[in-house]
């Protein structure tokens, strides 16, 4: 690992890193500390300010030029800015349930998922993290991230926009038929299974995929074990807003995109111990996590008492 690529980077990139790193640390501490205290409020104000600066500085970074000077990654910056406004608004309106949900979504999506894209080959964080480990000079890392973005099929980017829209739509409370609730998780799980069947996976990768499926099912069921289910007439259901779906959707897309980019531009990284297994595990984990949570929301959760707490309401 070396700091030389960052020290030689543009001021916009240096500002971006200087704000996102403390935002990641402060945000993590803020999520763990007691809520409502003076320290929590001060940390929240500092964190939201850092997140806004991080998002704004990204518009002056143009390593990947797909739409003029911008790329699909800048869409995350727009989501961060909109989410930041909603975080402040929900806190001032004392809607703390929505506030907590938005903060978690902004932290794990805006820092966690978006951060994965910074590790693509050719980007500065990749050079910092992997140049020494792979014994390659920094200048050897050509702008392959830009090549990967421009070389990706055109349909990839509308798909990303649609997936983000689906994830954002799940942030609010809504009513829907049970089949619609289960449709997206079923599609994602089916695609994951078909991907395992179609690919020539090694024994270790297959084991990682199975481990991801089991871990996703357990994590999804356990996280929903105390959730009450509200059933309506005509086989409809009322679902509370949640950010896990958005994080899971972006996690599936990011892991597939990163694995494809590495396979095309830096296959040596995939040959490192545990890397291929990680990319085999992640999409399956996120897909089964969503499936287990959707089943629990519909009232089928073997790890909890959800089935015994169904509340029936008649539609007006």
Describe this structure in words.
With about 325 residues, this protein is mainly α. It has two domains: about 1-150; about 170-315, no CATH class. The protein is built from 13 helices and four strands. Strands 1-3-2-4 form a four-stranded mixed beta sheet. Strand 2 (about 230) and strand 3 (about 235-240) form a beta hairpin. Mean pLDDT is about 75; it is low at about 130-140 and about 305-315.
Name the beta content range.
under 5%
| Rg of Cα set | 21 Å
The main sheet comes to: 4 strands, mixed
Helix content: 55-70%
What does the overall shape look like? globular
Span between termini: 62 Å
Low-confidence stretches: 132-142, 306-316
State the total count of DSSP E strands: 4
């Amino acid at each position: 690992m070396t700091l030389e690529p960052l020290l030689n980077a543009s001021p916009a990139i240096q500002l971006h890193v200087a704000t996102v790193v403390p935002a990641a640390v402060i945000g993590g501490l803020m999520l763990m500390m007691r809520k409502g205290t003076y320290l929590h409020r001060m940390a929240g104000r500092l964190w939201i300010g850092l997140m806004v600066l991080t998002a704004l500085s990204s518009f002056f970074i143009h390593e990947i030029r797909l739409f003029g000077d911008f790329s699909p990654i800048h869409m995350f910056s727009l989501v961060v800015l909109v989410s930041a406004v909603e975080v402040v608004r929900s806190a001032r309106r004392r809607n703390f349930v929505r506030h907590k949900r938005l903060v978690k979504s902004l932290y794990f999506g805006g820092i966690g998922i978006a951060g994965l894209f910074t590790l693509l080959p050719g980007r500065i964080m990749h050079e910092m993290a992997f140049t020494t480990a792979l014994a390659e000079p920094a200048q050897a890392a050509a702008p392959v991230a830009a090549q990967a973005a421009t070389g990706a099929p055109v349909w990839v980017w509308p798909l990303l926009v649609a997936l983000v829209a689906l994830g954002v739509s799940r942030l609010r409370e809504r009513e829907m038929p049970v089949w619609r609730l289960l449709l997206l998780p079923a599609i994602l799980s089916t695609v994951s299974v078909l991907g395992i069947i179609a690919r020539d996976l090694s024994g270790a990768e297959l084991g990682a995929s199975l481990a991801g499926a089991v871990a996703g099912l357990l994590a999804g069921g356990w996280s929903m074990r105390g959730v009450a289910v509200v059933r309506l007439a005509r086989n409809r259901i009322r679902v509370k807003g949640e950010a896990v779906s958005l994080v899971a959707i972006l996690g599936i897309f990011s892991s597939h995109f990163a694995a494809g980019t590495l396979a095309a531009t830096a296959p040596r990284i995939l040959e490192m111990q545990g890397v291929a297994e990680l990319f085999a595990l992640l999409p399956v984990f996120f897909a089964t996590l969503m499936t287990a949570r959707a089943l629990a929301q519909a009232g089928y959760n073997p790890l909890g008492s959800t089935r015994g707490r169904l509340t029936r309401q008649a539609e007006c």
